[in-house]
Amino acid sequence: MKHVITLNVNGDPYTVSVDPSQTLNEVLREELNLTGVKLGCGSGDCGACTVLMDGRAVSSCLTLAVEAEGKDILTVEGLAPSGEKLHVIQEEFIDKGAIQCGFCTAGMEMSALHLLNKNPSPTETEIREALSGNLCRCTGYAKIVEAISSAAQRMNDASERNQ
Fold first, then answer.
1. Residue 162: is its pLDDT beyond 80?
2. What topology is assigned to 88-157 in CATH?
3. Counting CB atoms within 10 angstroms of each CB, which of 11, 29, 35, 110 has the fewest?
């Protein structure tokens, strides 16, 4: 039997009818057409499906859609809501060449945002630890770590200018 739930995704409310066993990943991709959220392993090991739920990084492939009812969900599509200017993290991933095939990128960027929201000035070790749940088969992580470090600096600089 289907359940009607409301999800708050990227600042917008959505009412969807879901099966109790349907994952958040399935609903985001198939019902809401937010395909930036990838499905890699389906077992929470690769991080490609990472989204923020009430500010916490979660694997959308392991989260039931009904568990997300009423929660604030942020996907990679919500990082640059205007569509005209990318988020600093996204810009740095591009500028530093941290994107190869791109499959892991959305999950990496969401994990990076989660980290920088908690720790605005992480060390390289802290960045690597924060990414430990995200797998990349293309880059070797060095450019990803560099991109996140640079994004942190830019975000800190902007924060200081706004004070």
1. no
2. DNA polymerase; domain 1 (1.10.150)
3. 11
